[in-house]
Design a protein that fits this description.
- This protein is α+β, with helices and mostly antiparallel strands and 106 residues long.
- Helix content is 41%, strand content 25%.
- It is globular and about 45 Å long.
Length: 106
């Protein structure tokens, strides 16, 4: 499996040891990051105020729920003010999901 890499410390993260977090406020979404859970000796992203367990978002159902969340926020008028961070998170999630599906199919 392709490992998840912490946006804060740069080290690998186990599927159950990480969180996806971001900032939501003032009509903006940004600073999307995958980091270690608090308590792992990693500073994480204290500015972020929304988070999801990495193992949940890295499942097909959780990934689609995250995409639906983003679409709903955009429908409410929110904008992504840091598209590069969202792109990096989506690339990591996509690589994980691709490998998961490929291993199921053989």
């Amino acid at each position: 499996m392709v490992p998840f890499i912490c946006s804060s410390c740069g080290k690998e993260i186990g599927l159950y040891d990480g969180v996806l977090s971001w900032y939501q406020g003032d009509g903006k979404l940004g600073n999307f990051t995958i980091t270690h859970r608090p308590g792992w000796g990693c500073p994480g992203q204290p500015r972020n105020n929304v988070s999801r367990d990495l193992f949940r978002v890295a499942s097909m159902k959780g990934y689609l729920a995250f995409v639906q969340y983003l679409i709903s926020r955009w429908g409410e008028g929110y904008v992504v003010d840091d598209d590069d961070s969202l792109r990096k998170v989506m690339l990591q999630l996509n690589a994980h999901l691709h490998e998961s599906i490929a291993s199921l199919l053989g």
